[in-house]
Protein backbone atom coordinates (compact mmCIF):
# COMPACT_ATOMS: atom_id res chain seq x y z
CA UNK A 1 0.00 0.00 0.00
CA UNK A 2 2.82 2.37 0.85
CA UNK A 3 4.41 1.78 -2.57
CA UNK A 4 1.14 2.61 -4.34
CA UNK A 5 0.76 5.88 -2.45
CA UNK A 6 4.38 6.76 -3.14
CA UNK A 7 4.02 6.07 -6.88
CA UNK A 8 0.80 8.04 -7.08
CA UNK A 9 2.09 11.05 -5.20
CA UNK A 10 5.59 11.18 -6.64
CA UNK A 11 5.12 10.00 -10.23
CA UNK A 12 1.53 9.90 -11.50
CA UNK A 13 0.17 13.25 -10.31
CA UNK A 14 3.17 15.38 -11.35
CA UNK A 15 3.31 13.66 -14.75
CA UNK A 16 -0.41 14.25 -15.23
CA UNK A 17 0.02 17.94 -14.42
CA UNK A 18 2.98 18.23 -16.78
CA UNK A 19 1.11 16.56 -19.66
CA UNK A 20 -1.91 18.84 -19.21
CA UNK A 21 0.32 21.93 -19.06
CA UNK A 22 2.26 20.89 -22.18
CA UNK A 23 -0.95 20.26 -24.13
CA UNK A 24 -2.35 23.62 -23.03
CA UNK A 25 0.88 25.39 -23.98
CA UNK A 26 1.04 23.68 -27.39
CA UNK A 27 -2.53 24.60 -28.33
CA UNK A 28 -2.13 28.12 -26.94
CA UNK A 29 0.94 28.75 -29.13
CA UNK A 30 -0.50 27.01 -32.19
CA UNK A 31 -2.27 30.12 -33.65
CA UNK A 32 1.04 32.03 -33.62
CA UNK A 33 2.68 29.35 -35.79
CA UNK A 34 0.03 28.43 -38.38
CA UNK A 35 2.36 26.70 -40.84
CA UNK A 36 4.38 24.58 -38.41
CA UNK A 37 4.51 23.31 -34.85
CA UNK A 38 5.46 25.80 -32.15
CA UNK A 39 9.09 25.63 -30.97
CA UNK A 40 9.67 23.06 -28.25
CA UNK A 41 11.45 25.49 -25.94
CA UNK A 42 8.59 28.00 -26.10
CA UNK A 43 6.07 25.26 -25.41
CA UNK A 44 8.01 23.99 -22.40
CA UNK A 45 8.53 27.49 -20.99
CA UNK A 46 4.84 28.33 -21.28
CA UNK A 47 4.00 25.00 -19.59
CA UNK A 48 6.34 25.85 -16.70
CA UNK A 49 4.74 29.29 -16.34
CA UNK A 50 1.26 27.70 -16.32
CA UNK A 51 2.22 25.23 -13.59
CA UNK A 52 3.85 27.93 -11.44
CA UNK A 53 0.93 30.31 -11.84
CA UNK A 54 -1.63 27.60 -11.03
CA UNK A 55 0.26 26.72 -7.83
CA UNK A 56 0.42 30.39 -6.85
CA UNK A 57 -3.27 30.85 -7.63
CA UNK A 58 -4.24 27.87 -5.46
CA UNK A 59 -2.13 29.21 -2.59
CA UNK A 60 -3.73 32.63 -2.99
CA UNK A 61 -7.28 31.24 -2.81
CA UNK A 62 -6.70 29.20 0.31
CA UNK A 63 -7.36 25.62 1.25
CA UNK A 64 -11.13 25.82 1.74
CA UNK A 65 -11.83 27.26 -1.71
CA UNK A 66 -9.48 24.84 -3.47
CA UNK A 67 -11.02 21.86 -1.66
CA UNK A 68 -14.50 22.92 -2.81
CA UNK A 69 -13.50 23.52 -6.44
CA UNK A 70 -13.80 19.87 -7.65
CA UNK A 71 -17.37 19.79 -6.38
CA UNK A 72 -18.20 23.03 -8.15
CA UNK A 73 -16.59 21.84 -11.38
CA UNK A 74 -18.56 18.60 -11.15
CA UNK A 75 -21.81 20.54 -10.76
CA UNK A 76 -20.98 22.73 -13.77
CA UNK A 77 -20.16 19.63 -15.83
CA UNK A 78 -23.52 18.06 -15.01
CA UNK A 79 -25.33 21.32 -15.82
CA UNK A 80 -23.49 21.52 -19.15
CA UNK A 81 -24.31 17.92 -20.04
CA UNK A 82 -27.99 18.42 -19.17
CA UNK A 83 -28.12 21.65 -21.19
CA UNK A 84 -26.53 19.96 -24.21
CA UNK A 85 -28.91 16.99 -23.91
CA UNK A 86 -31.92 19.33 -23.65
CA UNK A 87 -30.91 21.33 -26.75
CA UNK A 88 -30.21 18.20 -28.78
CA UNK A 89 -33.63 16.73 -27.97
CA UNK A 90 -35.34 20.06 -28.65
CA UNK A 91 -33.75 20.38 -32.10
CA UNK A 92 -34.67 16.76 -32.91
CA UNK A 93 -38.30 17.47 -32.03
CA UNK A 94 -38.32 20.55 -34.25
CA UNK A 95 -37.01 18.53 -37.19
CA UNK A 96 -39.86 16.05 -36.74
CA UNK A 97 -42.42 18.88 -36.34
CA UNK A 98 -43.60 17.64 -32.95
CA UNK A 99 -43.30 21.04 -31.30
Automatic annotation (TrEMBL):
It comes from the Eukaryota. This is Uncharacterized protein. It comes from Oppiella nova.
Amino acid sequence: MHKLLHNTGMIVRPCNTAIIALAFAFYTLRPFYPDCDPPGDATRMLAVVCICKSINFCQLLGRQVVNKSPGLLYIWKIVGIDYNHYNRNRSALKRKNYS
